[in-house]
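lol so apparently i was supposed to do this last week
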Amino acid sequence: MRMDADSLLNPERRMLHRMQAKGGHEWSLDDVLEACEWSDQAVAVGAGHGLSNGGFVTTKETSSSVIRLAAEGMKAKEHGLLEARLWNWIQNHDEPTMANLQSDFERHEAGPGVGLLKRIGVQLSEGRFTAEQPNQVTSHIEERTAFIEALPQDNEAVDATLLEHFKSRRGLIEAVVTTTRTWTLTPLGKSVPAASLVEKKLINDITTELLQSDDWKEAAYRPFDVTLESSTPRTGRSHPMQALIERVRSIFLEMGFSELVDDYVQTAGWNMDALFIPQDHPAREMQDTFYLDEPKSIELPTHLTDAWGAIHEHGGETGSVGWGGSFSAETSQKGLLRTHTTVNTIQYLAKNPTEACRVFSVDRVFRKEAIDRTHLPEFHQIEGIIMEEGANLQMLVTTLKTFYAKMGYPEVRVRPAYFPYTEPSLEIEVKWRGKWLELGGAGIFRPEVTEPLGIASPVLAWGMGLERLAMLVLGLDDIRQLYISDLEWLRNQPVL
Ligand code: PHE
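anyway here it is w/ phenylalanine bound
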């Protein structure tokens, strides 16, 4: 409690001063606003609160509840209540049957509307609407209409039965509580000398000038209540996915990788054959991969299709036995939307087969997936390769662990897995909220992949889901949230 008039804030000073000047009646909010020349109710209520805490005024608060129209209620006021519109239709239609009603009214109206009518005496016999006492139906509806039209009204003033009725219907009415306050000077308030109610010049900002002079010692400072809620200023910002991509990028750049950006229109040859994915692999079917009509096929040099053909049919020079069967160069040339970004790293290696490298990409891939909580037909992969003399599995695991540790997930484990293009192959799992979640695949490229392209050293490779990672980072349980442009959600996302 502040009892000392010296510590009063400026609005409190002004309010007390003006109240003193006019004498001892009860002051309403409007009286205070007018006398103090304020337009902001919050200032008046705040000042009144402060004065009452200090014992300078007493506050009287009365709350009342007002019933007013909600969104559906406003529509009903304009176009009529649902039962009124249906009853009107029944009375004026030559054939007031259920079937006709259903064709004249939408389903969301016809269903509940018939229910409402039945409860006030309308019957349905042999598909036709009738009423034994039509006047009673009409008077029920008139009462309800009058109720709606009379709103807003004080809670006490409205008919209780009708109020209960409308409360049970969605969106028609709502109750709002309003508080009215009045303030009255206390003897203490009256006794404060007017001279001590002069408004002080308050310092809002602490400037270097102020600190350099001696003025700060005597100055009055505007107090801040740091416990009050404040609004967050709206500023432009990156979409959380873009922010995450930037973060992933900077981590790989920091780890000495260079970024690869390449097209997503590719051939089946590079997307699959080069990676020793057999031509009859189920993932290559139309229902899993988006094949293109335009370009339907993209020419590939015969030395490539020949080399892949040899590998697939009998293992080429690698000592492998291949997949057997016969290889089709035509299948290789089919145009498609890449199903993984490995299609780009393998081409990078084909162009630079002998130079040691560390390359990554964060880019879009496409798979014909049905959309659900964890699947999208279009998503992003975080792909990377390390090629160098002596590269080994340990290095691969360490690199992945380092990446996830930098992302904030120190607990990573790998498990054996299978991909046609790597041996050994592994799955990467990250611990999140006590559970292990699979985030991607990795491995060392097989000779069937590297030899036909003349790749000299071992290649460590991985491909991980970016959206999966985003779900962890943002705590989502539905992947679609990332792309629905929900502004409210977007505004509340942490800055990554
Ligand atoms: N391309 C694999 C996928 O799309 C991931 C992967 C990349 C696995 C590189 C091993 C090596 O899931």
